[in-house]
Amino acid sequence: MEKGSANGTVTSQDGRFRITVAGKNAVLVISYTGYETKEIHVDNDKPQNIVLALENKGLNEVVVIGYGAQKKASVTGSVASVKGSDIAQSSSANISNAIAGRIPGVIANNRSGRPGDDASTILIRGFNSFGGGTSPLVVVDGVPDRDFTRINPADIENITVLKDAAAAIYGVRSANGVILVTTKRGKTGKPTIQYDGSYGIQQLTRLPEIVNAWQYMTYYNEINPNTYSQADIDKYKAGNDSNYRSTDWINEVFRKNAPQLAHALSVSGGTDNVKYYFSGQYLDQSSNFRNSIEHYKQFNIRSNIDARISRNLKVNLDLAARREDRTYPTYGVNSILHEARSLYPFIPVRWANGSLSAGVSNGRNPVILVTGDPGYDKIKNYVLTPLAGFDLQLPFITRGLSVSGYASFDINLRNEKIFTKPWDAYSYNRTTGEYANQKTSTAITSITQDDRLTYYNTNFIKLAYDRQFGLHNINAFAGYEQTSSNYSQTYAYRKNLLSDQIDQIFTGNAEGQNATGASAQDGRASYLGRLGYNFDNKYLAELSFRYNGSFNFPASNRWGFFPAVSVGWRISEEKFFQEFVPFINQLKIRASWGMMGSDAVAQYLFLTRYQLVTNKNYYTYFGNDYALASSLLLSSTPNTNITWEKQDTRNIGFDATFLNGKLNINADYFRYLRKDILAQRSASIPLYTGMSLPAENIGKSLNRGFDLSVNYNNRKGAFQYNIGINLTYAKSKVLFRDEAANVPEWQKSEGHPIDSWLVYNTNGVYHTKEEIDGSVHLPGAKIGDLWIKDIDGNKSITSNDMVRRFESATPKFVYGINLGASYKGVAVNLLFSGQEKAKQMILSQMQGSLVAPPKWLYDGRSTADNPNAQYPRAFNANDSYNSIYADFWLKNAAFLRLKSVEASYSLPVHLYSRFGFSSMRVYASAYNLLSFDGMKKYGIDPETNNITGVNYPQSRIFRTGINVGL
After folding, report:
1. Is 622 or 332 the better-scoring residue by pLDDT?
2. CA neighbours closer than 13 Å in the CB half-sphere of residue 348
3. Which of 703-712, 893-902, 905-914 has the lowest average pLDDT?
4. Highest-confidence range of 378-382, 744-748, 876-880, by mean pLDDT?
5. Within a domain: residue 931?
6. pLDDT digits (tens, 9 = 90+) for 558-588
7. Which one, out of 91, 507, 576, 921, has a CA that is 20 to 30 A from the CA of 835?
8. Under a CB-based contact definition with an 8 Å cutoff, are residues 695 and 737 in contact?
9. CA–CA distances in Å: residue 895 to residues 83, 565, 601, 806, 834
């Protein structure tokens, strides 16, 4: 960049560049991420060799923290971040999926790859509560409660996670951790245009293999003998009769490939007085349902403008808008997949005459259900997030004093329309050879319209002071923040429309109609502040507080005080350390404590709540004609003493740098003591009291663990490479949870993980009659049933024999491995993510009495010919011997997954510079490419955490694209 002007350029991957400057006295400012900025004087037009020195990141890197930013060297809390450029490498369109494996302390599990419904479940350092919410607070550009999952990935500058007392500045929203998202802003220079376009193919990572027709008949004959004739079984087994063919309903419902298309365009630049960043994005995702109407489209626009009005006054105006269009089948995804698992595999998709079969009943052929024939469910979501802010320096009062603030007014409008109509589906009578259309029994015509509008308003102002006095550096601020939200819903339903070709609610019959609505309010007010001090950049201390009021609690308990303190010692700056430990470039030891809160509980628990009853059992009769009248029913007992959950948060850690900045190690140990968790005393108070007990602040839990990250980067000439490893261990434990006095000790949750499994312990499967006769067993137990242990020793199997396990579905260990290398324009980046110490329950037969068993269960079942089999005899959901929560069905959910891989090539400048382009890069990437785990045989993804396996699987995405700059 030519100093003092907007004239600039970028280098090629091998470092070459060309620039025309104003004159011989021009000064070039050369900068590159990870290196010190350098200025050189241009005194001739000859080529020059310029070498940049590695940046001392420990000193100069700026880290975003709550309500501000600090140099990394001064940070005393446990803070981790990831760059937006790393996020953009992921082929997933959902940002929450892109952070898995990248940030120590973050547990992100993706449950589904369904377009528009593919967000990961995020925890910061594991589970801490069993009474309220556990999701972290998300803050986007300083504004709390904004959704970050659907932001254009190209708009993200960085994502920072506050894991310890550094989050306490957010008061009653801090206990579950805080995620800070910062979007890109303009920089001084000529306009820079960036375009990124990609096309991808989505595939499902894993699907269960289901039995065929004759296997299904054989299996259910073993449950109920003679349900199917041997003659029919033989015909399906032979497969040479077109009327006796098996149907793989899973394969018929899903297709192998579904397209994903994305375009993103941004323009940024500015002068010393005005800087701007504008962007737009279009995303189009199809579903892996075959011939389905399911589709997701997303439109994003963003405008971030910064203007200097005077020497001391800067203002910013940010505006982001998003539209999401979801088109789904009228029947939910779980209903469709349930039908695909429950529908007999001997029923064809189409009959011999080409007509679609009606399934078992009501025409519920899943191949039809994914189409638009039964109607649709269309959801349109509109999000508008404007913000106006200012920063006024006050040097006329004293140097370093400033006042700043912002006001935001977010709008979220959600419109949903569900249209159902009957569809053509035929049954076939094999005796008469006749087909009958079951259209009249499939569904009625109906329209549901559900409109929801939410306003979010946030106002914030702070007075800040940042000044250095010799070796003393002080930075402080005091502020006030107020948030409020108003929610309203209007719901209308009508059925028996005039025509199934007119999807308008006015065509419905008034009889049976439903018109209702709801509204809710929420709000918080806070006084907050922070005082930071460092002496000689060696000794660091920070105090923060938040006096926070929450709308969720009664006036008497509405306000709480949340203090935090942290200290740090940059011991590497001591002369004795530099003399005796020269191989450590930087070492900072830090510790923090904070009292944090969580108000993530149901609203209005302190009020007496009623519900309008329309069930006839609650009608009140008046007069001699016994006319019915609606009534109000007391739905809950209030607790006027309710308050927020409190968390004592302690953290100790260090940050170390070796090998002149090439090797960085960060480690933390944490201890979270959560108390006043909301729970009911229902377990210890008998039901016959007739009391409907309110939630009380009685629960208590402990969560302990550590984070570790190790990063190494180096450069050998034109070859650069980096290796990063991060690891998190988090173990939760219930300290108190109200449990009945007669609950056996081995079932109590105290001392166990918050979401621990309660199951029957088993000795496997009965293989002989002698094993049955020699053990305590359920009445009527047979060879092939689960061998349940008699834990309480009372010579009978009851629910008292269930045991609380130390395993849970939440992993105790999560880790990520980042590998990257580049050479003369060619770059490869890989991200592995994994988890350990997690157990998932697999009970596929629990979803229904006629569900088709998976192939692994069928092949490994116990039979008269194979009594020593691995799995129980044939059973369904009604089987009390085998369709039960047992340790036998708990499977290891550990995995190592190649989460993301990207290979790219930056073309040489001379190939495109003549056409006005400043950069050009082509790339290919994959998401969820490989998974190494023990769940493959079950056809279930280890991240799913779905007992029956009836869910839309995760997606594997292959993507190619191009990125060009002007």
Report:
1. 332
2. 16
3. 905-914
4. 378-382
5. no
6. 999 999 999 999 999 999 998 889 899 999 9
7. 91
8. no
9. 25, 38, 33, 19, 5
* Count of C-beta atoms within a 10 Å radius of residue 200: 24
Rounded CA separation 500/915 (Å): 56
- Whether 900 and 925 have beta carbons less than 8 Å apart is answered as yes
Question: Is the alpha carbon torsion for 651, 656, 661, 662 positive or negative?
Answer: negative
- How many Cα atoms occupy the beta-carbon half-sphere of 31 within 13 Å? 7
Residue tagged 């199934």 (tokens)? 500
Mean pLDDT of 493-501: 94
Q: What share of the chain has pLDDT > 70, as a percent? A: 94
The pLDDT assigned to 729 comes to 97
Q: Is a pLDDT exceeding 90 seen at residue 291?
A: yes
Tokens of 421: 């109509």
| Last residue in a domain, options 20, 38, 55 | 55
Backbone angles phi and psi of 697, in degrees to 5 = -85, 80
Burial of 892 (0-12, 13-18, 19+ CB in 10 A): middle
Confidence of residue 201 (pLDDT cuts 50, 70, 90): very high
pLDDT tens across 902-912, in order? Answer: 999 999 998 99
Compute the distance between CA of residue 65 and CA of residue 369 in angstroms, rounded to an integer. 48
Domain-located, residue 402: no
Distance CA 451, CA 413 (A): 8
* SS3 track for 500-523: CCCCCHHHCEEEEEEEEEEEEEEE
Contact 273, 306 (CB under 8 A): no
* β pairing state of 178-183 and 189-204: unpaired
Q: Which helix (H) or strand (E) holds 677?
A: strand 663-679
CA angle 152, 158, 159 (to 5 degrees): 90
Is residue 220 a part of any domain in this protein?
A: yes
* Closest of 431, 557, 474 to residue 172, by C-alpha: 557
Q: Where are the beta strands (DSSP E) in 394-538?
A: 401-420, 426-429, 434-437, 446-469, 472-495, 509-535
User: Residue 337 class from Cβ within 10 Å (0-12 exposed, 13-18 middle, 19+ buried)?
Assistant: buried
User: Which among 642, 640, 644, 556 is positioned nearest to 600, based on CA atoms?
Assistant: 644
For residue 578, the model assigns a pLDDT of 87
Helices 213-223, 230-238: axis angle to 10 degrees equals 160
Average pLDDT over the chain reads: 91
Nearest to 921, CA basis, from 871, 861, 963, 858: 963
Please give the pLDDT value at position 619. 47
For residue 142, is pLDDT > 60?
yes
For residue 613, how far is the Cα from the chain centroid? 36
Question: Cβ(359)–Cβ(441) under 8 Å?
Answer: no
What is the residue range of 226's domain?
A: 215-243
Whether residue 633 is predicted with pLDDT greater than 90 in this model: the reply is: no
Overall domain count for the chain: 2
Burial of 124 (0-12, 13-18, 19+ CB in 10 A): buried
Task: Out of 1-5, 55-59, 130-134, give the one with best mean pLDDT.
Answer: 130-134
Pairing of strands 620-622, 68-71: unpaired
Q: What is the mean pLDDT of residues 487-511?
A: 94
The answer to whether residue 348 is domain-embedded is no
Angstrom CA distances, 852 to 238, 351, 847, stand at 20, 21, 10
Q: Among 324, 318, 315, 362, which Cα is nearest to 343's?
A: 362
Domain end residue (candidates: 191, 223, 243): 243
E strand or H helix at 236, and its extent?
helix 230-238
> How far apart are alpha carbons 931 and 270 in whole angstroms?
45
DSSP-assigned letter for residue 640: T
Residue 743: is its pLDDT beyond 80?
yes
Q: What is the dihedral of CA 777, 780, 783, 788, to 10 degrees?
A: -20
Tokens of 166: 């550094």
Residue 618's pLDDT is 47
